[in-house]
Amino acid sequence: MNIPIELKYTENDEWIKVEGNVGTVGLTDYAQEQLSDVVFVEILLAVGDTPAKGDSCATVESVKAAADIYMPASGKVIAINEGLPGAPETVNSSPYGDAWMVKIELSDPAELGTLLDAAAYTAKVTKEE
Amino acid sequence: MYLPHTDAERQEMLSVIGVASLEDLFRMVPAGQRFPELGLPEPMTEMEVSAELNAMAAANESTRNLVCFLGAGAYNHYIPAAVGAIISRGEFLSAYTPYQPEISQGTLQAIFEYQSLVAALTGMEVSNASHYDGATAVAEAVSMAQAHFRGKRTRIILSPALNPQYLETIRTYTAGSSLTLDGCDPAVDPMSGPDCLYDLLDSQTALVVVQYPDFFGRVYDYRPLAEKAHQAGALFAVAVNPLALGLLTPPGEFGADIVTGEGQPLGIPLSYGGPYLGIFATKMEYVRKMAGRLVGETVDNRGQRAYVLTLTAREQHIRREKATSNICTNQGLMALASAVYMSLLGKQGLREVAELCYHKAHYAASQIARLPGYTVEAGAVFFNEFAVHCPIPVGVTNAHLLDHGILGGYELAQAYPHRRELDNAMLLAVTEMNSKDEIDLLVEALAEVSND
Known about the structure:
With 129 residues, chain A is of the alpha+beta class.
Protein backbone atom coordinates (compact mmCIF):
# COMPACT_ATOMS: atom_id res chain seq x y z
CA MET A 1 0.00 0.00 0.00
CA ASN A 2 1.29 3.38 -1.01
CA ILE A 3 1.36 6.19 1.58
CA PRO A 4 3.58 8.96 0.18
CA ILE A 5 5.67 10.69 2.85
CA GLU A 6 5.16 14.22 1.51
CA LEU A 7 1.34 14.23 1.83
CA LYS A 8 -1.02 15.02 4.73
CA TYR A 9 -3.97 12.72 5.50
CA THR A 10 -7.36 12.72 7.21
CA GLU A 11 -9.05 10.07 9.36
CA ASN A 12 -11.59 9.77 6.50
CA ASP A 13 -8.87 8.72 3.99
CA GLU A 14 -8.45 11.92 2.01
CA TRP A 15 -4.98 13.24 1.15
CA ILE A 16 -3.80 16.80 0.56
CA LYS A 17 -0.61 17.85 -1.15
CA VAL A 18 0.57 21.34 -0.22
CA GLU A 19 2.71 23.37 -2.65
CA GLY A 20 3.14 26.95 -1.54
CA ASN A 21 -0.36 28.21 -0.79
CA VAL A 22 -2.10 25.61 -3.00
CA GLY A 23 -3.56 22.34 -1.73
CA THR A 24 -4.47 19.43 -4.01
CA VAL A 25 -7.02 16.95 -2.66
CA GLY A 26 -7.75 13.30 -3.46
CA LEU A 27 -8.59 9.87 -2.05
CA THR A 28 -5.88 7.57 -0.66
CA ASP A 29 -4.60 4.30 -2.07
CA TYR A 30 -5.91 2.50 1.01
CA ALA A 31 -9.41 3.95 0.44
CA GLN A 32 -9.52 2.93 -3.23
CA GLU A 33 -8.45 -0.59 -2.23
CA GLN A 34 -11.28 -0.77 0.32
CA LEU A 35 -13.81 0.53 -2.20
CA SER A 36 -12.65 -1.80 -5.02
CA ASP A 37 -13.58 -0.89 -8.63
CA VAL A 38 -14.72 2.73 -8.74
CA VAL A 39 -17.47 3.28 -11.31
CA PHE A 40 -18.60 6.83 -10.67
CA VAL A 41 -17.14 10.10 -9.44
CA GLU A 42 -19.03 13.33 -9.02
CA ILE A 43 -17.16 16.44 -7.95
CA LEU A 44 -19.53 18.59 -5.93
CA LEU A 45 -17.50 21.81 -6.04
CA ALA A 46 -16.94 24.36 -8.79
CA VAL A 47 -14.11 26.84 -9.34
CA GLY A 48 -14.71 29.86 -7.13
CA ASP A 49 -16.50 27.94 -4.36
CA THR A 50 -15.11 28.46 -0.86
CA PRO A 51 -15.58 25.20 1.04
CA ALA A 52 -14.70 24.95 4.71
CA LYS A 53 -12.70 22.07 6.14
CA GLY A 54 -15.07 19.10 6.43
CA ASP A 55 -17.42 20.19 3.63
CA SER A 56 -18.36 17.66 0.95
CA CYS A 57 -16.05 17.76 -2.01
CA ALA A 58 -16.95 14.71 -4.10
CA THR A 59 -18.95 11.50 -4.18
CA VAL A 60 -17.35 8.24 -5.22
CA GLU A 61 -19.21 5.03 -6.01
CA SER A 62 -17.66 1.62 -6.47
CA VAL A 63 -19.24 -1.68 -7.39
CA LYS A 64 -19.79 -2.34 -3.70
CA ALA A 65 -20.04 0.96 -1.83
CA ALA A 66 -20.54 4.70 -2.02
CA ALA A 67 -18.31 7.18 -0.23
CA ASP A 68 -18.29 10.90 0.37
CA ILE A 69 -15.04 12.82 0.12
CA TYR A 70 -14.59 15.78 2.48
CA MET A 71 -12.27 18.78 2.32
CA PRO A 72 -9.16 18.31 4.50
CA ALA A 73 -8.75 22.11 4.66
CA SER A 74 -10.61 25.34 3.91
CA GLY A 75 -9.96 27.51 0.90
CA LYS A 76 -11.05 28.77 -2.49
CA VAL A 77 -11.36 26.27 -5.32
CA ILE A 78 -8.99 27.21 -8.17
CA ALA A 79 -9.33 24.00 -10.25
CA ILE A 80 -11.34 20.81 -10.39
CA ASN A 81 -10.37 17.64 -12.23
CA GLU A 82 -12.84 17.90 -15.10
CA GLY A 83 -11.67 14.65 -16.67
CA LEU A 84 -12.18 12.46 -13.60
CA PRO A 85 -15.98 11.85 -13.86
CA GLY A 86 -15.36 10.52 -17.36
CA ALA A 87 -12.63 8.16 -16.13
CA PRO A 88 -13.62 7.03 -12.61
CA GLU A 89 -11.32 3.98 -12.79
CA THR A 90 -8.41 6.42 -12.44
CA VAL A 91 -9.20 6.52 -8.70
CA ASN A 92 -8.02 2.89 -8.59
CA SER A 93 -5.06 3.20 -10.94
CA SER A 94 -3.62 6.56 -9.91
CA PRO A 95 -5.07 7.72 -6.58
CA TYR A 96 -2.27 10.23 -5.91
CA GLY A 97 -1.79 11.37 -9.51
CA ASP A 98 -4.42 11.53 -12.24
CA ALA A 99 -7.26 11.07 -9.76
CA TRP A 100 -6.73 14.34 -7.90
CA MET A 101 -10.10 15.98 -7.35
CA VAL A 102 -9.81 19.66 -6.49
CA LYS A 103 -7.12 22.29 -6.01
CA ILE A 104 -7.68 25.05 -3.49
CA GLU A 105 -5.96 28.20 -2.41
CA LEU A 106 -5.60 27.57 1.32
CA SER A 107 -7.33 30.16 3.46
CA ASP A 108 -6.08 28.88 6.81
CA PRO A 109 -2.78 26.96 6.51
CA ALA A 110 -2.82 26.46 10.30
CA GLU A 111 -5.53 23.82 9.77
CA LEU A 112 -2.91 21.56 8.20
CA GLY A 113 -1.43 21.02 11.67
CA THR A 114 -4.50 19.00 12.66
CA LEU A 115 -4.01 16.49 9.82
CA LEU A 116 -2.15 13.17 10.00
CA ASP A 117 1.34 12.78 8.61
CA ALA A 118 2.31 9.65 6.68
CA ALA A 119 3.46 7.83 9.83
CA ALA A 120 0.26 8.59 11.75
CA TYR A 121 -1.89 7.62 8.74
CA THR A 122 0.06 4.36 8.36
CA ALA A 123 -0.65 3.63 12.03
CA LYS A 124 -4.38 4.34 11.55
CA VAL A 125 -4.59 2.11 8.49
CA THR A 126 -2.65 -0.70 10.14
CA LYS A 127 -4.98 -0.57 13.13
CA GLU A 128 -8.04 -0.77 10.88
CA GLU A 129 -6.62 -3.77 9.05
CA MET B 1 -56.76 -11.83 18.96
CA TYR B 2 -53.24 -13.23 19.12
CA LEU B 3 -50.86 -11.57 21.59
CA PRO B 4 -47.33 -12.93 21.55
CA HIS B 5 -46.41 -12.19 25.18
CA THR B 6 -47.48 -14.15 28.24
CA ASP B 7 -48.49 -12.40 31.48
CA ALA B 8 -45.25 -13.60 33.06
CA GLU B 9 -43.19 -12.05 30.24
CA ARG B 10 -45.07 -8.78 30.55
CA GLN B 11 -44.48 -8.74 34.32
CA GLU B 12 -40.77 -9.37 33.70
CA MET B 13 -40.52 -6.45 31.25
CA LEU B 14 -42.36 -4.15 33.65
CA SER B 15 -40.03 -5.05 36.51
CA VAL B 16 -36.93 -4.42 34.34
CA ILE B 17 -38.07 -0.85 33.62
CA GLY B 18 -39.27 -0.42 37.21
CA VAL B 19 -42.98 -0.02 36.65
CA ALA B 20 -45.48 -1.90 38.81
CA SER B 21 -48.29 -2.36 36.30
CA LEU B 22 -49.40 -1.56 32.77
CA GLU B 23 -51.72 1.13 34.18
CA ASP B 24 -48.68 2.77 35.80
CA LEU B 25 -46.86 2.73 32.48
CA PHE B 26 -49.62 4.79 30.88
CA ARG B 27 -50.09 7.12 33.85
CA MET B 28 -48.62 10.08 31.91
CA VAL B 29 -51.50 9.86 29.44
CA PRO B 30 -54.41 12.06 30.68
CA ALA B 31 -57.02 9.87 32.39
CA GLY B 32 -59.78 10.77 29.94
CA GLN B 33 -57.69 9.57 27.00
CA ARG B 34 -56.16 6.55 28.71
CA PHE B 35 -58.78 3.96 27.88
CA PRO B 36 -61.20 5.78 25.56
CA GLU B 37 -64.61 4.38 24.74
CA LEU B 38 -64.44 3.60 21.03
CA GLY B 39 -68.21 3.25 20.68
CA LEU B 40 -67.89 0.35 18.28
CA PRO B 41 -70.96 -1.65 17.32
CA GLU B 42 -71.42 -5.21 18.57
CA PRO B 43 -69.32 -7.86 16.80
CA MET B 44 -70.85 -9.51 13.74
CA THR B 45 -70.36 -12.82 12.00
CA GLU B 46 -68.55 -13.01 8.66
CA MET B 47 -71.87 -13.50 6.89
CA GLU B 48 -73.37 -10.40 8.52
CA VAL B 49 -70.29 -8.29 7.77
CA SER B 50 -70.34 -9.42 4.17
CA ALA B 51 -74.03 -8.52 3.80
CA GLU B 52 -73.51 -5.10 5.39
CA LEU B 53 -70.50 -4.26 3.19
CA ASN B 54 -72.38 -5.40 0.09
CA ALA B 55 -75.31 -3.15 1.01
CA MET B 56 -72.92 -0.22 1.44
CA ALA B 57 -71.20 -0.98 -1.89
CA ALA B 58 -74.56 -1.25 -3.67
CA ALA B 59 -75.38 2.31 -2.63
CA ASN B 60 -72.53 3.57 -4.85
CA GLU B 61 -72.91 4.48 -8.48
CA SER B 62 -70.02 3.23 -10.60
CA THR B 63 -68.79 3.40 -14.17
CA ARG B 64 -70.28 -0.09 -14.60
CA ASN B 65 -73.81 1.33 -14.60
CA LEU B 66 -73.19 4.96 -15.52
CA VAL B 67 -72.01 6.49 -18.77
CA CYS B 68 -68.80 8.25 -17.79
CA PHE B 69 -67.53 11.56 -19.19
CA LEU B 70 -65.44 12.38 -16.13
CA GLY B 71 -61.66 12.52 -16.41
CA ALA B 72 -59.43 15.28 -15.00
CA GLY B 73 -56.47 12.97 -14.46
CA ALA B 74 -58.05 9.49 -14.22
CA TYR B 75 -59.77 7.93 -17.21
CA ASN B 76 -62.32 5.21 -17.86
CA HIS B 77 -60.67 2.86 -20.35
CA TYR B 78 -61.33 -0.73 -21.30
CA ILE B 79 -59.10 -3.21 -19.47
CA PRO B 80 -58.61 -6.53 -21.31
CA ALA B 81 -59.45 -9.53 -19.10
CA ALA B 82 -55.91 -10.88 -19.47
CA VAL B 83 -54.55 -7.98 -17.39
CA GLY B 84 -56.49 -9.07 -14.31
CA ALA B 85 -55.79 -12.74 -14.94
CA ILE B 86 -52.03 -12.25 -15.15
CA ILE B 87 -51.60 -9.87 -12.21
CA SER B 88 -53.75 -12.17 -10.03
CA ARG B 89 -51.24 -15.01 -10.31
CA GLY B 90 -49.79 -15.85 -6.92
CA GLU B 91 -46.25 -15.27 -8.15
CA PHE B 92 -47.08 -11.62 -8.85
CA LEU B 93 -49.84 -10.65 -6.45
CA SER B 94 -47.57 -9.62 -3.59
CA ALA B 95 -47.36 -5.87 -4.01
CA TYR B 96 -43.87 -5.54 -2.60
CA THR B 97 -40.49 -6.04 -4.18
CA PRO B 98 -38.95 -8.66 -1.88
CA TYR B 99 -36.11 -7.57 0.38
CA GLN B 100 -33.83 -10.09 -1.30
CA PRO B 101 -34.96 -8.97 -4.73
CA GLU B 102 -32.67 -11.10 -6.89
CA ILE B 103 -34.35 -14.24 -5.62
CA SER B 104 -37.50 -13.12 -7.46
CA GLN B 105 -36.24 -13.15 -11.02
CA GLY B 106 -39.79 -13.13 -12.41
CA THR B 107 -40.72 -9.97 -10.51
CA LEU B 108 -37.52 -8.26 -11.61
CA GLN B 109 -38.00 -9.33 -15.22
CA ALA B 110 -41.56 -7.96 -15.20
CA ILE B 111 -40.27 -4.62 -13.86
CA PHE B 112 -37.50 -4.64 -16.47
CA GLU B 113 -40.07 -5.17 -19.22
CA TYR B 114 -42.18 -2.35 -17.77
CA GLN B 115 -39.16 -0.02 -17.75
CA SER B 116 -38.34 -0.93 -21.35
CA LEU B 117 -41.91 -0.26 -22.49
CA VAL B 118 -42.05 3.09 -20.68
CA ALA B 119 -38.70 4.14 -22.17
CA ALA B 120 -39.96 3.25 -25.66
CA LEU B 121 -43.30 5.00 -25.16
CA THR B 122 -41.81 8.24 -23.80
CA GLY B 123 -38.78 8.29 -26.09
CA MET B 124 -36.40 8.36 -23.12
CA GLU B 125 -33.30 6.31 -22.31
CA VAL B 126 -34.14 5.02 -18.85
CA SER B 127 -37.25 4.49 -16.72
CA ASN B 128 -37.37 3.65 -13.05
CA ALA B 129 -39.53 0.91 -11.55
CA SER B 130 -42.32 3.51 -10.92
CA HIS B 131 -43.64 5.78 -8.18
CA TYR B 132 -47.02 5.96 -6.42
CA ASP B 133 -48.94 8.02 -8.97
CA GLY B 134 -48.71 10.85 -11.47
CA ALA B 135 -48.62 13.49 -8.75
CA THR B 136 -45.74 11.99 -6.76
CA ALA B 137 -43.83 11.22 -9.97
CA VAL B 138 -43.87 14.86 -11.06
CA ALA B 139 -42.89 15.92 -7.54
CA GLU B 140 -39.89 13.56 -7.78
CA ALA B 141 -38.90 15.38 -10.99
CA VAL B 142 -38.67 18.57 -8.91
CA SER B 143 -36.53 16.78 -6.29
CA MET B 144 -34.29 15.43 -9.03
CA ALA B 145 -33.71 18.87 -10.53
CA GLN B 146 -32.86 20.18 -7.07
CA ALA B 147 -30.35 17.35 -6.57
CA HIS B 148 -28.94 17.83 -10.08
CA PHE B 149 -28.10 21.48 -9.43
CA ARG B 150 -27.10 20.78 -5.79
CA GLY B 151 -29.10 23.73 -4.59
CA LYS B 152 -27.27 26.17 -6.88
CA ARG B 153 -30.42 26.79 -8.90
CA THR B 154 -33.54 27.11 -6.80
CA ARG B 155 -36.32 28.20 -9.13
CA ILE B 156 -38.93 25.75 -10.38
CA ILE B 157 -41.25 27.00 -13.11
CA LEU B 158 -44.56 25.15 -13.17
CA SER B 159 -47.09 25.48 -15.94
CA PRO B 160 -50.36 26.93 -14.57
CA ALA B 161 -52.12 24.24 -16.62
CA LEU B 162 -50.65 21.41 -14.52
CA ASN B 163 -53.23 19.19 -12.83
CA PRO B 164 -54.07 21.12 -9.60
CA GLN B 165 -53.46 17.96 -7.56
CA TYR B 166 -49.96 17.70 -9.02
CA LEU B 167 -49.36 21.32 -8.00
CA GLU B 168 -50.56 20.56 -4.47
CA THR B 169 -48.26 17.56 -4.21
CA ILE B 170 -45.27 19.56 -5.46
CA ARG B 171 -46.08 22.27 -2.90
CA THR B 172 -46.19 19.63 -0.15
CA TYR B 173 -42.89 18.05 -1.26
CA THR B 174 -41.06 21.36 -1.47
CA ALA B 175 -42.47 23.06 1.64
CA GLY B 176 -39.57 24.15 3.81
CA SER B 177 -36.98 23.63 1.08
CA SER B 178 -34.93 26.36 -0.58
CA LEU B 179 -36.92 26.03 -3.81
CA THR B 180 -39.28 28.70 -5.07
CA LEU B 181 -42.21 27.73 -7.28
CA ASP B 182 -43.16 30.11 -10.07
CA GLY B 183 -45.69 30.25 -12.87
CA CYS B 184 -48.54 28.62 -10.96
CA ASP B 185 -49.63 31.54 -8.80
CA PRO B 186 -53.44 31.66 -8.35
CA ALA B 187 -53.38 35.10 -10.02
CA VAL B 188 -52.17 33.49 -13.27
CA ASP B 189 -54.87 32.45 -15.72
CA PRO B 190 -54.60 28.62 -15.70
CA MET B 191 -55.75 28.57 -19.31
CA SER B 192 -52.85 30.67 -20.55
CA GLY B 193 -50.63 28.66 -22.85
CA PRO B 194 -46.93 27.80 -22.48
CA ASP B 195 -45.86 31.16 -23.96
CA CYS B 196 -46.53 32.74 -20.56
CA LEU B 197 -43.58 30.80 -19.12
CA TYR B 198 -40.86 32.23 -21.41
CA ASP B 199 -40.34 35.43 -19.44
CA LEU B 200 -39.92 33.54 -16.17
CA LEU B 201 -36.81 31.65 -17.32
CA ASP B 202 -33.56 32.88 -15.82
CA SER B 203 -30.15 31.66 -14.64
CA GLN B 204 -31.69 30.51 -11.33
CA THR B 205 -34.21 28.21 -13.04
CA ALA B 206 -33.57 24.53 -12.29
CA LEU B 207 -36.60 23.02 -13.97
CA VAL B 208 -39.59 23.83 -16.15
CA VAL B 209 -42.58 21.49 -15.79
CA VAL B 210 -45.41 21.25 -18.30
CA GLN B 211 -48.22 18.75 -18.86
CA TYR B 212 -48.96 16.91 -22.13
CA PRO B 213 -51.88 16.97 -22.79
CA ASP B 214 -52.34 19.68 -20.15
CA PHE B 215 -55.01 19.62 -17.44
CA PHE B 216 -57.51 21.12 -19.89
CA GLY B 217 -56.79 18.42 -22.45
CA ARG B 218 -54.82 20.75 -24.73
CA VAL B 219 -51.81 19.63 -26.73
CA TYR B 220 -49.03 22.13 -27.39
CA ASP B 221 -45.81 21.85 -29.32
CA TYR B 222 -43.37 22.32 -26.44
CA ARG B 223 -40.26 22.29 -28.62
CA PRO B 224 -39.71 26.09 -28.45
CA LEU B 225 -40.16 26.08 -24.66
CA ALA B 226 -37.76 23.14 -24.26
CA GLU B 227 -35.17 25.01 -26.32
CA LYS B 228 -35.60 28.19 -24.26
CA ALA B 229 -35.31 26.19 -21.03
CA HIS B 230 -32.09 24.57 -22.22
CA GLN B 231 -30.69 27.91 -23.34
CA ALA B 232 -31.24 29.11 -19.77
CA GLY B 233 -29.38 26.01 -18.52
CA ALA B 234 -32.50 24.50 -16.94
CA LEU B 235 -33.94 20.99 -17.19
CA PHE B 236 -37.27 20.40 -18.92
CA ALA B 237 -39.87 17.97 -17.56
CA VAL B 238 -43.10 16.82 -19.18
CA ALA B 239 -45.95 15.15 -17.24
CA VAL B 240 -47.82 12.96 -19.71
CA ASN B 241 -50.94 10.94 -20.16
CA PRO B 242 -49.09 7.84 -21.43
CA LEU B 243 -52.07 6.67 -23.48
CA ALA B 244 -51.96 9.89 -25.51
CA LEU B 245 -48.40 8.98 -26.52
CA GLY B 246 -49.90 6.25 -28.69
CA LEU B 247 -50.77 9.14 -30.99
CA LEU B 248 -48.63 12.12 -30.01
CA THR B 249 -44.91 12.79 -30.51
CA PRO B 250 -43.02 11.32 -27.52
CA PRO B 251 -41.47 14.01 -25.28
CA GLY B 252 -38.02 12.47 -25.82
CA GLU B 253 -38.25 13.80 -29.37
CA PHE B 254 -38.87 17.41 -28.37
CA GLY B 255 -36.22 17.87 -25.75
CA ALA B 256 -37.61 16.50 -22.49
CA ASP B 257 -34.98 15.70 -19.85
CA ILE B 258 -37.56 14.07 -17.57
CA VAL B 259 -40.90 12.51 -18.45
CA THR B 260 -43.37 11.68 -15.69
CA GLY B 261 -46.92 10.47 -15.99
CA GLU B 262 -50.03 8.99 -14.47
CA GLY B 263 -50.02 5.37 -15.61
CA GLN B 264 -53.65 4.67 -14.67
CA PRO B 265 -54.96 4.84 -18.27
CA LEU B 266 -52.75 1.85 -19.11
CA GLY B 267 -54.91 -0.98 -17.81
CA ILE B 268 -55.48 0.17 -14.22
CA PRO B 269 -59.04 0.52 -12.88
CA LEU B 270 -60.37 3.85 -11.58
CA SER B 271 -61.07 2.30 -8.15
CA TYR B 272 -61.68 5.52 -6.16
CA GLY B 273 -58.35 7.05 -7.13
CA GLY B 274 -55.82 4.36 -6.40
CA PRO B 275 -53.62 2.45 -6.40
CA TYR B 276 -52.32 4.14 -9.53
CA LEU B 277 -48.93 4.25 -11.17
CA GLY B 278 -46.28 6.98 -11.27
CA ILE B 279 -44.25 6.88 -14.45
CA PHE B 280 -40.76 8.35 -14.38
CA ALA B 281 -38.25 8.34 -17.23
CA THR B 282 -35.13 10.36 -17.96
CA LYS B 283 -31.86 10.45 -19.89
CA MET B 284 -28.91 8.21 -18.93
CA GLU B 285 -26.96 11.36 -18.17
CA TYR B 286 -29.19 12.00 -15.13
CA VAL B 287 -29.75 8.42 -13.98
CA ARG B 288 -27.72 8.77 -10.78
CA LYS B 289 -29.98 11.58 -9.60
CA MET B 290 -33.16 9.65 -10.42
CA ALA B 291 -35.20 8.46 -7.46
CA GLY B 292 -36.81 5.05 -7.21
CA ARG B 293 -35.72 1.53 -7.90
CA LEU B 294 -34.12 0.48 -11.14
CA VAL B 295 -33.87 -3.03 -12.54
CA GLY B 296 -31.02 -3.89 -14.89
CA GLU B 297 -30.23 -6.88 -17.07
CA THR B 298 -26.94 -8.72 -16.60
CA VAL B 299 -25.45 -12.22 -16.87
CA ASP B 300 -24.88 -14.49 -13.89
CA ASN B 301 -21.74 -16.54 -13.13
CA ARG B 302 -22.94 -19.23 -15.54
CA GLY B 303 -23.37 -16.75 -18.36
CA GLN B 304 -27.18 -16.83 -18.14
CA ARG B 305 -29.37 -13.75 -18.48
CA ALA B 306 -30.34 -12.39 -15.07
CA TYR B 307 -32.00 -9.33 -13.57
CA VAL B 308 -30.73 -7.24 -10.66
CA LEU B 309 -31.54 -4.04 -8.82
CA THR B 310 -28.89 -1.70 -10.15
CA LEU B 311 -27.34 1.67 -9.30
CA THR B 312 -28.67 1.23 -5.78
CA ALA B 313 -26.18 3.70 -4.31
CA ARG B 314 -28.61 6.42 -5.52
CA GLU B 315 -31.19 5.15 -3.14
CA GLN B 316 -32.06 6.06 0.37
CA HIS B 317 -31.28 2.68 1.88
CA ILE B 318 -27.57 3.13 1.20
CA ARG B 319 -27.06 6.88 1.53
CA ARG B 320 -30.14 8.12 3.29
CA GLU B 321 -29.10 11.74 3.73
CA LYS B 322 -27.68 12.12 0.23
CA ALA B 323 -30.42 10.37 -1.75
CA THR B 324 -32.56 12.37 -4.18
CA SER B 325 -35.68 11.02 -2.49
CA ASN B 326 -36.61 9.16 0.66
CA ILE B 327 -39.08 7.06 -1.30
CA CYS B 328 -37.93 4.02 -3.20
CA THR B 329 -41.24 2.17 -3.03
CA ASN B 330 -42.66 1.34 -6.42
CA GLN B 331 -46.12 0.27 -7.55
CA GLY B 332 -45.00 -3.21 -8.56
CA LEU B 333 -48.39 -4.70 -9.29
CA MET B 334 -49.67 -1.62 -11.11
CA ALA B 335 -46.46 -1.44 -13.15
CA LEU B 336 -47.04 -5.07 -14.10
CA ALA B 337 -50.67 -4.31 -15.06
CA SER B 338 -49.54 -1.52 -17.36
CA ALA B 339 -46.79 -3.70 -18.85
CA VAL B 340 -49.34 -6.42 -19.60
CA TYR B 341 -51.73 -3.84 -21.05
CA MET B 342 -49.06 -2.30 -23.29
CA SER B 343 -47.87 -5.74 -24.42
CA LEU B 344 -51.41 -6.90 -25.25
CA LEU B 345 -52.22 -3.82 -27.28
CA GLY B 346 -48.84 -3.34 -28.88
CA LYS B 347 -47.75 -0.18 -30.64
CA GLN B 348 -50.60 -0.34 -33.16
CA GLY B 349 -53.28 -1.15 -30.59
CA LEU B 350 -52.20 1.71 -28.35
CA ARG B 351 -52.39 4.04 -31.34
CA GLU B 352 -55.90 2.75 -32.15
CA VAL B 353 -57.15 3.36 -28.61
CA ALA B 354 -55.64 6.86 -28.64
CA GLU B 355 -57.21 7.58 -32.04
CA LEU B 356 -60.63 6.39 -30.83
CA CYS B 357 -60.35 8.70 -27.80
CA TYR B 358 -59.28 11.60 -30.00
CA HIS B 359 -62.00 11.19 -32.65
CA LYS B 360 -64.83 10.51 -30.20
CA ALA B 361 -63.84 13.51 -28.09
CA HIS B 362 -63.77 15.70 -31.19
CA TYR B 363 -67.18 14.43 -32.27
CA ALA B 364 -68.57 15.20 -28.80
CA ALA B 365 -66.99 18.67 -28.78
CA SER B 366 -68.39 19.52 -32.21
CA GLN B 367 -71.89 18.41 -31.20
CA ILE B 368 -71.82 20.32 -27.91
CA ALA B 369 -70.49 23.45 -29.66
CA ARG B 370 -73.73 23.55 -31.69
CA LEU B 371 -75.91 23.71 -28.60
CA PRO B 372 -77.25 27.16 -27.73
CA GLY B 373 -75.72 28.45 -24.50
CA TYR B 374 -72.66 26.17 -24.62
CA THR B 375 -69.17 27.22 -25.66
CA VAL B 376 -66.40 24.72 -26.19
CA GLU B 377 -63.02 26.17 -25.24
CA ALA B 378 -61.25 26.59 -28.56
CA GLY B 379 -57.90 27.82 -29.73
CA ALA B 380 -55.73 24.78 -29.10
CA VAL B 381 -55.46 21.23 -30.32
CA PHE B 382 -56.90 18.81 -27.78
CA PHE B 383 -56.66 15.08 -27.18
CA ASN B 384 -59.63 13.46 -25.41
CA GLU B 385 -60.68 16.15 -22.99
CA PHE B 386 -61.97 19.71 -23.35
CA ALA B 387 -63.47 22.52 -21.31
CA VAL B 388 -67.08 23.53 -21.92
CA HIS B 389 -68.74 26.70 -20.63
CA CYS B 390 -72.29 25.81 -19.63
CA PRO B 391 -75.30 28.13 -19.41
CA ILE B 392 -76.02 27.15 -15.78
CA PRO B 393 -73.86 26.00 -12.85
CA VAL B 394 -72.02 22.72 -13.34
CA GLY B 395 -73.51 21.19 -10.19
CA VAL B 396 -77.04 21.62 -11.57
CA THR B 397 -76.02 20.37 -15.01
CA ASN B 398 -74.34 17.28 -13.55
CA ALA B 399 -77.37 16.48 -11.35
CA HIS B 400 -79.51 16.52 -14.46
CA LEU B 401 -77.03 14.32 -16.35
CA LEU B 402 -77.02 11.85 -13.45
CA ASP B 403 -80.80 11.52 -13.82
CA HIS B 404 -80.03 10.26 -17.34
CA GLY B 405 -77.45 7.81 -16.04
CA ILE B 406 -74.55 10.01 -17.09
CA LEU B 407 -71.54 10.87 -14.94
CA GLY B 408 -70.87 14.43 -16.08
CA GLY B 409 -67.71 16.48 -16.32
CA TYR B 410 -65.28 17.83 -13.74
CA GLU B 411 -66.40 21.14 -12.23
CA LEU B 412 -63.47 23.47 -12.85
CA ALA B 413 -64.60 25.91 -10.15
CA GLN B 414 -63.57 23.26 -7.59
CA ALA B 415 -59.93 23.73 -8.57
CA TYR B 416 -60.11 27.42 -9.53
CA PRO B 417 -62.67 29.04 -7.19
CA HIS B 418 -61.26 32.53 -7.84
CA ARG B 419 -61.49 32.39 -11.62
CA ARG B 420 -64.93 33.85 -12.34
CA GLU B 421 -64.64 32.96 -16.05
CA LEU B 422 -64.57 29.26 -15.10
CA ASP B 423 -67.63 29.45 -12.84
CA ASN B 424 -69.89 27.42 -15.12
CA ALA B 425 -67.13 25.49 -16.86
CA MET B 426 -66.71 21.73 -16.86
CA LEU B 427 -64.03 19.46 -18.21
CA LEU B 428 -65.42 16.59 -20.30
CA ALA B 429 -63.40 13.49 -21.10
CA VAL B 430 -64.28 11.00 -23.82
CA THR B 431 -62.64 7.60 -24.21
CA GLU B 432 -62.99 4.54 -26.43
CA MET B 433 -65.59 3.33 -23.87
CA ASN B 434 -68.09 5.98 -25.00
CA SER B 435 -70.20 4.86 -27.95
CA LYS B 436 -71.68 7.33 -30.43
CA ASP B 437 -75.09 6.67 -28.86
CA GLU B 438 -73.74 7.62 -25.44
CA ILE B 439 -72.23 10.82 -26.79
CA ASP B 440 -75.53 11.68 -28.48
CA LEU B 441 -77.32 10.96 -25.20
CA LEU B 442 -74.97 13.39 -23.42
CA VAL B 443 -75.58 16.08 -26.04
CA GLU B 444 -79.37 15.63 -25.80
CA ALA B 445 -79.28 15.80 -22.02
CA LEU B 446 -77.14 18.96 -22.11
CA ALA B 447 -79.62 20.51 -24.57
CA GLU B 448 -82.49 19.71 -22.18
CA VAL B 449 -80.72 21.41 -19.27
CA SER B 450 -80.28 24.63 -21.19
CA ASN B 451 -83.96 24.55 -22.24
CA ASP B 452 -85.29 24.04 -18.73
